Amino acid sequence: MIPASALWTPALLSMAAAIAYSLAAVAAPRLGASAVRAALAAAWALHGLVLAFGLAEQPPRFGFAPALSMTAWLVLTVYAIEHRLYPQLTARWTLAILGAGAVLMAWFYPGVSSAGTNSPWLPLHWALGIASYGLFGAAVVHAWLMTRAERQIRLATSATTGVPLLTLERLTFRFVWAGFFLLTATLVAGWLFGETFSQTPPTRRWDHKTVFSVLSWITFAVLLVGRARFGWRGRTAVRFLYAGATFLLLAYAGSRFVLEVLLGRSP
Is 84 left (phi over 0), alpha (psi -120 to 50) or beta? Predict the structure, then answer.
């Protein structure tokens, strides 16, 4: 007989979360709205348990896939809170697919052990970075909804988001400002305490992660200045947001993907 404790392993939790996300996405037309919300809530809770198991591991493992999994979970958390304020927001299908893909990716690529790191500031650095990922991820989702609503207005079709375009734009830039603040804090923490936390004292170096992070910060700074001074909005603002998010994705997740998967070595 399989021990009861073995049923609650991260692998089974990941599978259960992915199935619940898939039900919320694929079976949405056949299920009622309340059933879809329940499936998405269950998936979100299971996803959170998977992340908790990963963080409780000693020593903890981290990598590009866990980072993306945490980002997806944070975006879903933001959506759940926002849906209370704006019930007409309809992005469940997209976010459910995102959540299912992220949790399965973290299952297959759980990352590498951080046993060699000895800086007490590393958890803070990770937390700031992942939080900025989550906020910019939420901004990208809102920008996508805003672009879709704008296209529907031009085509004179009914908007599926149900949220006024100006409201979506305001929400998008609130997330951009919050993400920019946390990204700045992440870069400052990395500079003060060093990018290579496994050395004593930590060293500072201009690697791919640092270069892409700085490029991302510059892109978001230009976007915010352009909006404040020149009133950038619409396609121009969205393009800068997508460019900055791409640089940020390449900064950590992209560089770690190359190291862990393509090159097969630890950072």
Answer: alpha
Burial of 196: CB neighbours in 10 Å, binned 0-12, 13-18, 19+:
middle
Cis bond upstream, residue 201 (ω within 30): yes
- Copy the structure tokens of residue 93: 């299908």
- CATH number assigned to the domain covering 116-262: 1.20.120
* Number of helices followed by number of strands (H, E) in the chain: 9, 2
Specify the pTM.
Answer: 0.85
- Which tokens go with 24? 């919320």
d(CA 211, CA 206): 6
Residue spans of the domains in the chain: they are 116-262
CA distance 242 to 140: 7
Q: Burial, 233: exposed, middle or buried (Cβ in 10 Å; 0-12, 13-18, 19+)?
A: middle
Computed from CA positions of residues 173, 223, 253, 114, in that sequence, does the dihedral angle turn out positive or negative?
negative
pLDDT < 70 regions, the chain: 1-8, 28-29, 31, 59-60, 113-121, 156-162, 193-206, 263-267
% of the chain surpassing 70 pLDDT: 81
- The model's pLDDT over 8-47, given as tens digits with 9 standing for 90+, comes to 577 888 999 999 998 888 776 676 777 878 888 999 999 9
Token representation of residue 15: 């599978």
Which tokens sit at 83?
């849906």
Number of neighbours of residue 97 by Cβ within 10 angstroms = 16
